[in-house]
Amino acid sequence: MPELLIDFITSLDGYAAADGWPGWWGLEGPEYLTWLGEQPEADYTVLMGAATYRLMSGFAAAGEPGTDALAGMSKVVFSTTLSEPLLWPNTRLVAQDPVEAVREMKAKASTSMRTIGSLTLCRSLLKAGLADRFRVVVFPVITGSSGRERIYDGYPDVALEMIGSRTFDGRSQLLEYVPTILAGPPSRPESR
Predict the structure, then answer these.
(1) pLDDT, tens only, 72-129
(2) What's the CA gap between 38 and 180, in Å, rounded?
(3) Terminus-to-terminus CA distance in the chain, angstroms?
(4) Strands (E), the chain
(5) Structural contact between residues 67 and 60, judged by C-beta atoms closer than 8 angstroms
(6) What is the Cα–Cα distance from 5 to 175, expressed in whole angstroms?
(7) What distance in Å separates the CA atoms of residue 5 and residue 46, rounded to the nearest whole number?
(8) At what angle do helices 119-127 and 98-108 cross, to 10 degrees?
(9) C or N: which end of the chain has fewer Cβ atoms within 10 Å?
(10) Residue 28 counted as domain residue
(11) 78 is in which domain, residue-wise?
(12) Which domain CATH number covers 76?
């Protein structure tokens, strides 16, 4: 069965973006950009919502570093507000409920999937138990006063088993986990 990878970039304090900061907080070094172009998930279908599509296709149209690799990837946009034709190459629009659509895609398709941005989409896919792997690249900035879009607000409690890590350009950290949704905080073992 194909896997679903929830994939984020974040500031150290858990924001997906920050007012006034450039993409990747201006810290996309050569190792990170090379990894973006060579990562093994290049054949995965990229899943995103309408806001991320608008943002990323705009970055791609402006020639933002690292977005050229996305142009050739198969992409699915979940939206009831966008209409076809979508201008970004290799992009399909799906107006169906994303949880049900991804459940069907995992059951019927042979291609694995990964998200890009799309906080609401990622939250709903994780809550539905569809995420097989969770990856975050943490950039070394704290955007407390300018940060927006806190990634983990509204998430359930999730236990994360680390399966990999890497440092890019001596400053950004990639962390990979297998997520397990918890009913709540784990109880402490009774002390004797």
Answers:
(1) 889 999 999 999 989 888 999 999 999 999 999 999 988 999 998 899 999 999 999 9
(2) 28
(3) 45
(4) 4-11, 15-18, 45-49, 75-78, 91-94, 113-115, 133-139, 147-150, 158-168, 172-181
(5) yes
(6) 12
(7) 9
(8) 60
(9) C
(10) yes
(11) 4-181
(12) 3.40.430.10
Helices (H), the chain: 30-38, 50-61, 68-71, 98-108, 119-127
Q: In what order do the strands lie in the sheet with 113-115?
A: 91-94, 75-78, 45-49, 113-115, 4-11, 133-139, 172-181, 158-168
Amino acid (1-letter code) at residue 110: S
| Residue 164 · residue 174 · CB < 8 Å | yes
pLDDT tens-digit readout, 40-79:
788 899 999 999 999 888 888 888 766 777 888 899 999 9
Is position 187 within any domain? no
pLDDT of residue 70: 81
Domain count, the chain: 1
Quote the mean pLDDT of the chain: 90
**At 179, phi and psi to the nearest 5?**
-90, 145
- Residue (of 190, 136, 189, 191) closest to 158 by Cα position: 136
Q: Establish if 192 belongs to a structural domain.
A: no
37: in domain: yes
